[in-house]
Amino acid sequence: MARWTVANSRDLYNVEAWGAGLFDVSDQGHAIVTTPRGTLDLKRIVDDCVRRGIRLPLLIRLPDVLEERVNALAGTFRDVITEEEYDGHYRGVYPIKVNQERHIVEDIVANERRWGMGLECGSKPELLIALARVDDPDALIIINGYKDEELIEMAVAARQLGRNTIVVIEQPWELPMVLKAAATLDVRPAIGVRVKLGSSGSGRWAESSGDRAKFGLTLREIMDLVKELEAGGNLDMLQLLHFHMGSQVTAIRSLGDAVHEGARVFSALAQMGVPLRYFDVGGGLAVDYDGSRTDFESSMNYDLREYVSVVVRTIRTVCDEAEIPHPDIVTESGRSLVAHSTLLVTQVLDSATLHRPVELQSEEEAELQSMKDLRRIYDDINSRAPQRAYHEAMAIRDETFQRFLLGQTSLEERAAVEEAFYTICRRIVRVARKPMHEELENLPRDLADNYFCNFSVFQSAPDAWAVGQLFPIMPLSRLTEKPTRQGIVSDLTCDSDGKIDKFIDRRDVRRTLDLHDPNEGEPYYLGIFLLGAYQETLGDLHNLFGDTNAIHVTATADAAGYRIDNFIEGDTVEEVLGYLQYSRKSLLEPLRRSVERAYGDGTLSFEVGNRLTETFISLLRAYTYLG
């Protein structure tokens, strides 16, 4: 048998495809991340964190990766704009909603001087973040979403501070509020308008575009808005046209169609005399979570260069035909910027095989007819007829179950038949041709081992549960060893949905993950990758598991090779209970009354009562996850 190598693991977990040139496997069999600043050994960092007393689960944020993703997006636009002799500039904005964590936003804004990166906000809190963090007068602050007078007045007033705010009109009633604020503050605001395109999107969020889209104006409403501005001498306020295709657009053709339609609307408005400066193509730039390079909902059938080329060339062609100036191009790419910058590390607490294979007695040795029949089926299994063997074995199992319910057979026979049935199923999985018949395709999942891990899916990877999002998962070490088990990842919550049982694959969704047999006394860490977009904010307090510990790690040139720039402590039990209005006092007082009653009844000693109270107080200060 050939020796298992790092190349085998790299291929098994499809690292090169989803890793975007950032993630890989080292010669030592450890998961690593490499940027121009250096290489980080994720297993070593986690081991060092444990020695520091930082407990798992642990969210690892990688500012180096974030910087590299910003450079890739803005740099590609710069290069293509130069090559295509495009006269406008690239003006990227980051949608705060994708990940509002302060350090993430600050790392994005750190690029405002080099690339002119700005922020997009859709609420009052997000607007305050943008106004406090962006101070480059050239960086855009785009205000989308539903608005009231308070929000609009703040956005308009901010222009007096040198902030380049643009209020995007998405509902007809918003324009009067902007004009009122402009008159009250004596400020000339910049406004944009979001158009509802006829072009449809692709992927899970395709309904974000089209006639039934939640936001945006119809063409007639836009024309009425232009007339109203022109009549009031305010047409110069309208500087930006915006459309949005929805998050994670999987097909380049859908993107191209939308940009072409949007460019036609832009050119028509420009020819009507509207002094538009910016063309905002919104978000939608996808992340190839599974590395399949297809239009599957967790992938994308294009790369960054192709996306940028389609955007720039389409706008240039339409504008040249209309003989109008090339606008500055604005994108609101969030997912593609931050997804790669965050991963969660959890340790495997235990593993369990649900249906272990057993040695079946021969037909001659077996006393029960059911066991004789199951042994015959086992011996006759071949790659040509696994479905027939499955049907026959299931019929025997079901018949035995019915006889058990009627009191016609023993518990021992039922248990033996169950064991034999699943032993047959395991052999079917081994010999069946791939892909398996749809009736058999769930067998690998049904036979998979359970790997119990110290985390909550609902808190740390909520989209895996809510919308079936696939995230790359692989061990952080032992990648020079061949995995010998097929498993699913189960979390700590008391919920049957608290598991991940769908995994990335080049051709399809896998129902199991290749894992190693945990070694006694040796931690086995799993990394869940590409969690930077949306997951933290969407996290849910299921079973009151709170935010995890988090670190920000950058590569260095010194002996250590890395530096922890920030350590953000995860929630304590007391903090999580406080979110639900349970104060320390409201919990301790009832406990102490119960302890005092037990003292009086003579059912509790002072020593045990004191230890119980101290343990209760200690748990309030504890991390919500297991030690």
What does this structure look like?
By secondary structure, the chain is α/β, with parallel strands linked by helices. Among the domains are: 76 residues, Methane Monooxygenase Hydroxylase, Chain G, domain 1; 33 residues, no CATH class. Helix content is 40%, strand content 16%. Strands 4, 13, 14, 15, 16, 17, 18, 19, 20 and 21 form a ten-stranded mixed β-sheet that branches. A hairpin with an 8-residue loop joins strand 16 and strand 17. Helix 8 crosses helix 9, helix 11 runs parallel beside helix 12 and helix 15 runs antiparallel to helix 16. The chain is globular and about 95 Å long.
Notable features of this structure?
627 residues; alpha/beta; Methane Monooxygenase Hydroxylase, Chain G, domain 1; 10-stranded mixed beta sheet; 8-stranded parallel barrel
Write the layout of secondary structure elements.
Layout: H1 6-12, H2 15-18, E1 23-25, E2 31-35, E3 38-41, H3 42-52, E4 58-61, H4 63-83, E5 90-95, H5 102-109, H6 112-115, E6 118-121, H7 124-133, E7 140-143, H8 149-157, E8 164-169, H9 174-185, E9 190-194, H10 219-231, E10 238-242, H11 252-271, E11 278-280, H12 304-322, E12 328-331, H13 335-338, E13 342-352, H14 369-380, H15 386-405, H16 411-431, H17 443-447, E14 449-453, H18 457-460, H19 462-466, E15 473-475, E16 485-490, E17 499-500, E18 513-515, E19 525-528, H20 535-538, E20 549-555, E21 562-568, H21 573-579, H22 584-601, H23 606-620
Parallel strand pairs: 4-20, 5-6, 5-12, 6-7, 7-8, 8-9, 9-10, 10-11, 11-12, 14-16
Antiparallel strand pairs: 1-2, 2-3, 4-13, 13-14, 13-19, 15-19, 16-17, 16-18, 20-21
